[in-house]
Amino acid sequence: MEDFSSFVTxxxxxxxxxxxITENEALAQKSTFxxxxxxxxxxxxxxYYSFQLTLRRILAQKLPFFIVGGASNLVFPDDDFQGVxxxxxxxxxxxxxxxxxxxxxxxxxxFQKDDVLVTCFAGTPMAQLVDFxxxxxxxxxxxxxxxPGTVGGAAFMNARCFEKSLSxxxxxxxxxxxxxxxxxxxxxxxxxxxWDYKKSPFQNNNRFVTxxxxxxxxxxxxxxxxxxxxxxxxxxxxLEKGHFKxxxxxxxxxxxxxxxxxxxxxxxxxxxxxxxIGGAQIAPFHGNFIINVxxxxxxxxxALVELAQKKVKEKFGFQLETEIIFL
Length: 327
Hints:
Elements: H1 4-13, E1 19-26, E2 38-45, H2 48-61, E3 65-68, E4 74-75, E5 81-87, E6 94-97, E7 115-121, H3 126-135, E8 138-139, H4 151-157, E9 160-161, E10 164-165, E11 170-177, E12 185-189, E13 207-218, H5 225-240, E14 248-251, H6 263-269, E15 276-277, E16 280-282, E17 289-292, H7 298-316, E18 325-326
Parallel strand pairs: 2-5, 3-5, 4-18
Antiparallel strand pairs: 1-2, 6-7, 7-13, 8-13, 9-10, 11-12, 11-13, 14-17, 15-16, 16-17
């Protein structure tokens, strides 16, 4: 049987741990879906070392755990999670990265005059990144304005907004490898072959992204006014599409570009928009959204996901692939 009490005591009393640790923490309000029970332990470290010592202790005690960012693409369970939720929410900041401080093992890169590198810790909200860019006259991230969640989560999913993927502006990143009990820290220049539509090198392995460095461009004069204008435009478009009318996790299913039609359109053509199970509903305004209309449970969302997959498979012979993650 897992000994969570000794784990909590160890972390709380460790001289070098910076962050917060709580027991029986309510999860629903920590996700954009507003669904879920409690976590046996909830830890939110503030720096690299605190993440490492927390993960080392988790692995040493063989405790169940799950790493979360902004939980904007996640459905927490209806029953208590008998494990450790490790959150990056306190591991947050955005800053200009001096190009001369890049790792020595990186190949030389021909930066242009107005190229600027911006580094964000994993828990940095995407909204904070966009605001930082506006304040510093940096263009490249406007399409992600209004995107909920964190930089780490967006990198994990390789978030795509308005035909632009996050990997289009990533220059390099660091991660911790927790398949190794020492939890070493690695760095790597982006290799486009490792990234694709909603695909990143952090999926289906034991890598936890710690920082992401973006390659952006500084604008001058009247041109820099366009950065804030475009950011507002993309945010307003999300609002007009109903993204924030109800608690949700945004798009439920990935689009299959080989198939052609967007997943939301296929669901709509199956007559499923507005279908409700329990407190969850396929949004009347968007076939690829499931919304929490009245104290929805994870099981309600799961039932709607399976219904949509079944009906689309029957009508089009196409298997919808979920984008959201059920813990």
